[in-house]
């Protein structure tokens, strides 16, 4: 009879790594009795290739200074993990590298290890946390947007609805608009995505803001019109200068002749201050408007508000008040200015 290997009792790890493997970024951090945002990291969930063919993996992308013509390869497409090799490389770099801030010991690799950990002596259990009875989760992320009703912590499958519009589509749409009206930015995904996060807002009155943007483009400095909340419709976005290491930023629109001359003479005066900028008007609110009106680009889908109603229609009417009273909104698109008010 073969000898059995000695069984060594192991204690459970004192820290638990919590990972949200998003399509655009991986949100990760260790569990704590006093959690804070500073203890969590947002790691780019992609591989990137620079102009000089150098490959950057995961968090290495944040240390890059020149994002010009950078090509990205993302392991998650349309909400599905389609490239396990690329995802494994990102996980290894983020969690198993000794230099990583979230370095963990891979202790749960073998089946026997799992048995030793969870087959130990009975532990004292605390009172379980009871989830809210009814919750309506609206998740608008990089690949798509979903509406998921939860009943006692479990999703109601027949009422889940998905909208194939997310941050990627908004970025691509903004790239097309800027490439037609300003500069060719079709190969500048990182630049356009940063601009989208800084300049875009959701309009509460699309037609009214569209007319204000048209009037502001042709107005003088003293005639600039603002929204009811004081937000200017037309702004200038100064492009980043990767040679100088400066990032792009938004500033109030300057229609004066000096600004136009400075823009036209930037290339003709190498010794002077080089400042390329784009004057943006209706692009700021026309792009995120796709979340609520996909028909603007010919997509035959319901908007986000209509998707919520479709989800509720798959539930008993008795649950509607509780669901509407407990709405949780997550995802990167909810950070767009005016998104929560419009929704």
Question: How does this structure look, described?
Answer:
The chain is an alpha+beta fold and 343 residues long. 27% of the residues lie in helices and 18% in strands. The strands form five sheets. Strands 9, 10, 11, 12 and 16 form a five-stranded mixed sheet that branches. The protein has a three-stranded antiparallel sheet with strand order 1-2-3, with no helix packed on it. Strands 5-4-6 form a three-stranded antiparallel sheet, with helices on one face. It is globular, with a radius of gyration of 25 Å. The chain starts with 16 loop residues before the first strand and ends with a helix.
Order of helices and strands: EEEEEEEEHHEEEEHHHEEHEHHHEH
Helix content: 25-40%
What portion of the residues fall into strands of 2 or more residues? 15-25%
Structural class designation:
alpha+beta
Mean pLDDT: 81
Measure the end-to-end span. 69 Å
Spatial extent as radius of gyration: 25 Å
């Amino acid at each position: 009879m073969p000898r059995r290997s000695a069984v060594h009792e192991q204690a459970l790890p004192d820290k638990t790594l919590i990972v949200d493997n998003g399509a655009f970024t991986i949100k990760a951090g260790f569990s704590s009795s006093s959690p804070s945002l500073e203890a969590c990291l947002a790691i780019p969930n992609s591989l990137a290739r620079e102009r000089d063919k150098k490959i950057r993996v995961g968090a290495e992308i944040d240390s890059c200074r020149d994002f010009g013509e950078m090509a990205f390869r993302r392991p998650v497409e349309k909400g599905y993990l389609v490239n396990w090799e690329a995802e494994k490389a990102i996980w290894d770099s983020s969690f198993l590298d000794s230099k990583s801030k979230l370095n963990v010991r891979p202790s749960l690799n073998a089946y026997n290890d799992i048995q030793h950990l969870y087959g130990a002596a009975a532990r004292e259990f605390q009172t379980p946390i009871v989830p809210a009875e009814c919750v309506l989760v609206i998740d608008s992320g990089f690949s798509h947007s979903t509406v998921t009703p939860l009943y006692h912590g479990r999703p109601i499958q027949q009422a889940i609805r998905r909208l194939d519009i997310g941050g990627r589509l908004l970025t691509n749409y903004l790239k097309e608009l800027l490439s037609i009206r300003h500069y060719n930015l079709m190969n500048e995904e990182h630049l356009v995505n940063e601009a989208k996060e800084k300049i875009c807002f959701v309009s509460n009155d699309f037609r009214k803001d569209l007319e204000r943007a048209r009037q502001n483009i042709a107005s003088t400095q003293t005639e600039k019109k603002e929204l009811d909340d004081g937000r200017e419709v037309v702004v200038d976005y100064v492009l980043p200068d990767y040679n100088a290491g400066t990032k792009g930023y938004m500033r109030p629109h300057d229609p004066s002749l000096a600004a136009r001359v400075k823009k036209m003479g930037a290339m003709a005066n190498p010794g002077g201050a080089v400042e390329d900028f784009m004057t943006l008007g209706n692009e700021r609110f026309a792009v995120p408007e796709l979340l609520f009106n996909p028909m603007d680009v010919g997509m035959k889908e319901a908007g986000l508000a209509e998707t919520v109603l479709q989800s509720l229609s798959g539930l008993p009417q008795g649950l509607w008040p509780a669901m509407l009273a407990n709405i949780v909104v997550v995802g990167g698109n909810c950070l767009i200015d005016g998104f929560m008010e419009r929704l």
